[in-house]
Amino acid sequence: MPFAFKLARRASRFRGLSLLLIAAAFACNSEQSLTDPGNPPTNESTAIASVAVTPGSGTLAVGQTSQYAVIATDSSGKTVSAGKVTWSSSNESVITVNASGVVTARATGSATITATTGGQTGSASVTVGGAPPPPPAATGWPNEPGGLSQLVNQSFDGLATLGWSVVNNGRGLVSVTADAGAPMSASNVLQFRYPSGYTGGGAPGTALYGHGAAKEVYAGFWWKPSSPWQNHPSNVNKVAFWQTGTWGSSADLQMYGPGPYYLHVVTQFPGGTVRLPPNATATAVTLGVWHRVEWHMRYGSGGADGLVEWWLDGVLQGRYANVQTPGDGGFIEYQFSPTWGGLDGTKTEDDYFLFDHVKLSRR
Question: Looking at residues 6-34, what average pLDDT do you find?
């Protein structure tokens, strides 16, 4: 056999093995992300000489959040990759900072946040004062697209009204209760309760609204998570779903942890499961207060051009216009089915989700 032919066969085998290894690596990751929230890889050949935190100082109101970042430089003053960053707060009763550098104001006062990477540290001062901004006006749905047809626009004065059904409520954990602070519809609200001893992997029950297939849908609702709230070990705390005409295919809205919590959307379509974290503004969910939540989805034309966007208290959290949607007739059912988890996990406290008013529309 000619030597050149042997080399070609070996190269072909190597390429085939490489493709198999790459495919196996992708198969191990069942949940993809359209963004990469992790830190970039460290440039091992370049030593970090100094670290600066930006912004160098800031002022927040109680309950507000802010994104901080690091700038790493080498001995010549050139900016280099920061690699993995460790964050800390000098006073966690005033401010906390998560692994991504998101600072949350907890109480009035001042504190210093510190970032460490490559053996170097940098810091910034944060002052917390004043009250958080007032909640949005309790009227209207400011981000509902024009031209949609209303499906329902209602308060919750009963468990099965105006076309809604409540299922899987054998333990009586879904009920209508009173909340004097309900922002839009009298005092009656829909409650989903998670008593101490509640195990993860399911919802207390499901309130659902079925409708004809629609390739564009919108949901707006008022929602209040209890304070405190016990996070699930998986960090997944689901709030609501749109189900499609394909069995097992849906999109769900999640309060994703660890705290502070942010709203994510997860699409579970035939092409795979994809987590969509905020890519516009990351507003932390404030526990124990009412929030106006809106989300809008539209099927694509056949390629990866479907739209998913969502808002918290009128502020756009995420917008993705490159979503691969199913090849079916569209969304057919809306659900409040607030699943805790993830599998495993047990509640050691009594928690709840409340819903005050909901509007659904379609095209």
Answer: 39
